[in-house]
């Protein structure tokens, strides 16, 4: 594959759209997870009393359901990514691959 073919692939609208959508989805989900996790760590560092307080007057504290909800959120975000990737991004990726393969199989100038 020569330099001109690589440039054509990188400038291909389908390829650019695929990269943009995958990147936007990945960064959005990463941002959500980081926001929640860092928020929890700040809560642990600066407001331990809240986390140690009883949820409903019993032995369960606020820290337990909040910590578990972070774990559950990570599974939910993985499911969201899988759903979107399988139903939207896979079709876009297939279209981009077809166009990239067509460019790659073209003969350059001799």
Topology summary:
Elements: H1 3-11, H2 13-46, H3 48-52, H4 63-105
Describe this structure in words.
The chain contains four helices and no strands. It has 110 residues and is mostly helical. The protein is elongated and about 75 Å long. It has one domain.
Structural shape? elongated
- Measured between the Cα atoms of the first and last residue, the distance is 13 Å
Unreliably modeled segments: none
Query: What is the radius of gyration computed over CA atoms, rounded to a whole number of angstroms?
Result: 23 Å
Number of domains: 1
> What string gives the helices and strands in order?
HHHH
Arithmetic mean of pLDDT: 87
| Strand count | 0
Protein name: DUF485 domain-containing protein
Organism: Acinetobacter pseudolwoffii
Pfam family, one: DUF485
InterPro entries: DUF485, Inner_membrane_assoc
